């Protein structure tokens, strides 16, 4: 990811995390209507992972720790969250403490592609990450080498209306953003393992992908 993306998420930590909660009833309703793919990919993640009791998890681009903390609350024994925006990591650490899962969550600032792992994880997820990845194939291959059971991914879809608007919005924020169609995603994930690809209904809504690796 670029330095521009890092700066963007450090600036917008409260606004981004607020999508999942807070900011009042009206704002919550607006997000439910216009960003429902974010709630749906959250539901699909835990539906596909099933019983995570005793599992280990690597959450790439963990943001404020929403997924990491939920994995820990569901019984994952160790959850490692990585984000290269220091303000996101600080928020995740604070929330893990509030939710009483600090002993099972470790959050760190770093670039996944620059980090070395001397172990593998049962579940490796990157939700809302490929929106900002210029070269997704090496990223996916490293994810596969790090996981021994599931890869959980999301990809932003192309849309005649929402894609141009989002490109303009992020251009003003000096943050590059990338989009995918089903053919491109299938080409990327082919060979990684049996996969389930779901297009969340609606123009511009995300694709959700769950890949089973190494016969886990």
Characterize the structure shown.
The structure is a single chain. The chain is an alpha/beta fold and 216 residues long. It has one domain (3-212): Rossmann fold (3-Layer(aba) Sandwich). It is 42% helix and 19% strand. It has helices spanning 3-11, 13-17, 24-34, 36-49, 66-73, 86-98, 136-146, 162-172, 182-189, and strands spanning 56-60, 78-83, 105-109, 121-126, 147-155, 195-199, 207-212. Strands 3-2-1-4-5-7-6 form a seven-stranded mixed sheet, sandwiched between helices. The relative contact order is 0.15.
Topology, number of strands = 7
Q: In percent, how helical is the residue content?
A: 40-55%
Biggest sheet: strands side by side, in what order?
3-2-1-4-5-7-6
Strand content: 15-25%
Structural descriptors:
globular, 9 helices, alpha/beta, 216 residues
Give the arrangement of secondary structure elements.
Layout: H1 3-11, H2 13-17, H3 24-34, H4 36-49, E1 56-60, H5 66-73, E2 78-83, H6 86-98, E3 105-109, E4 121-126, H7 136-146, E5 147-155, H8 162-172, H9 182-189, E6 195-199, E7 207-212
Parallel strand pairs: 1-2, 1-4, 2-3, 4-5
Antiparallel strand pairs: 5-7, 6-7
Q: Could you provide a short overview of the structure?
A:
With 216 residues, the protein is α/β, with parallel strands linked by helices. It has 9 helices and 7 strands.
């Amino acid at each position: 990811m670029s330095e521009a993306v890092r700066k963007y998420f450090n600036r917008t930590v409260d606004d981004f995390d607020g999508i999942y909660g807070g900011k009042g009833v009206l704002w919550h309703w607006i997000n439910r209507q216009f960003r429902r793919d974010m709630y749906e990919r959250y539901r699909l993640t835990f539906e596909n992972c099933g019983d995570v009791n005793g599992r280990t998890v690597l959450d790439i681009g963990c943001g404020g720790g929403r997924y990491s903390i939920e994995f820990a609350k569901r019984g994952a024994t160790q959850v490692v969250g990585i984000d290269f925006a220091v303000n996101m990591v600080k928020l995740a650490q604070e929330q893990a403490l509030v939710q009483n899962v600090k002993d099972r969550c470790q959050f760190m600032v770093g670039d996944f592609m620059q980090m070395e792992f001397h172990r593998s994880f049962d579940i490796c997820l990157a939700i809302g990450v490929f929106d900002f990845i210029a070269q997704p194939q090496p990223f996916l291959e490293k994810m596969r080498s790090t996981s021994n059971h599931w890869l959980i991914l999301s990809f932003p879809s192309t849309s005649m209306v929402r894609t141009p608007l989002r490109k303009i919005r992020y251009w003003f924020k000096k943050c590059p953003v990338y989009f995918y169609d089903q053919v491109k995603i299938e080409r990327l994930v082919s060979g990684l393992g049996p996969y389930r690809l779901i297009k969340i209904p609606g123009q511009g809504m995300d694709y959700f992908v769950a890949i089973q690796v190494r016969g886990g």
